[in-house]
């Protein structure tokens, strides 16, 4: 819970409120999600489409993620509803492999069949441009809050889902074909 990270701190506050509410709740905390109409990989795909030669990456792109399939999240939700043993639990959910942000961008480029050079940019520069775009209300691929969050890893143990829910989640590698279609033409999740 870092007040400089609006998105993350609101999630942390919501989690705390649910945990303290006395409700019979199960808290699921997935890493970055992938699947049709997702809000992360589709933004990267749009960035690749719009950038004719290069794709900028904040810093060196070494932040780590465990992309988690929307279908696997649905499976965890269903299992949570079936099992009273999950009540009161907090479960970090991640895919079976850790990817750096740069590797994720490379996978999106590969999926789209594009030829792009990844250009590392200083994080303060990307943050400044994102913040300026927000102030003048000009669209920019990422928000300043997202740039700050890219400095943090979003991972759990590789076997967290298997231990908690009894199955191995899908690996994202080679499964982003839906990005070849515009988001509006993708099937709703």
Description:
- It is built from seven helices and eight strands.
- It has helices at 6-20, 41-50, 70-82, 101-112, 123-135, 144-149, 160-165; strands at residues 27-30, 33-34, 54-58, 64-65, 68-69, 90-93, 99-100, 117-121.
- The strands form four sheets. The protein has a two-stranded parallel sheet. The protein has a two-stranded parallel ribbon with strand order 2-5.
- The protein starts with 5 loop residues before the first helix and ends in a 24-residue tail after the last helix.
- The chain is an alpha/beta fold and 189 residues long.
Shape: globular
Beta strand %: 5-15%
- Separation, N- and C-terminal Cα atoms: 29 Å
What's the tally of helices? 7
C-alpha Rg, in Å? 18 Å
Q: What does the main sheet amount to? A: 2 strands, parallel
- Give the strand order of the largest sheet, numbering strands 1, 2, ... along the chain: 1-6
Return the string of H and E elements: HEEHEEEHEEHEHHH
Structural class label: alpha/beta
Report low-confidence residues grouped into runs of 5 or more: none
Query: What's the pLDDT, averaged over the residues?
Result: 92
Percentage of residues in helical conformation? 25-40%
Q: What is the total tally of β strands?
A: 8
């Amino acid at each position: 819970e870092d007040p400089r990270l609006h998105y993350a701190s609101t999630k942390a506050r919501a989690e705390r409120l649910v945990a303290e509410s006395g409700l019979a709740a199960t808290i699921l905390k997935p890493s970055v999600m992938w699947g049709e109409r997702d809000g992360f990989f589709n933004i990267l795909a749009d960035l690749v489409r719009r950038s004719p030669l290069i794709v900028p990456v904040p810093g060196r792109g070494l932040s780590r993620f465990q992309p988690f399939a929307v279908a696997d999240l649905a499976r965890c939700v269903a299992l949570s509803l079936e099992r009273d043993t999950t009540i009161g639990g907090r479960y970090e959910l991640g895919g079976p492999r850790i990817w750096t942000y740069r590797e994720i961008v490379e996978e999106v480029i590969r999926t789209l069949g594009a030829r792009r050079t990844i250009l590392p940019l200083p994080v303060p520069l990307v943050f400044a441009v994102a913040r300026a775009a927000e102030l003048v209300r000009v669209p920019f691929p990422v928000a300043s809050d997202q740039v700050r969050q890219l400095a943090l890893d979003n991972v759990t143990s590789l076997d967290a889902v298997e231990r908690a829910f009894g199955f191995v989640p899908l690996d994202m590698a080679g499964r982003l074909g839906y990005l070849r279609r515009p988001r509006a033409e993708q099937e709703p999740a």
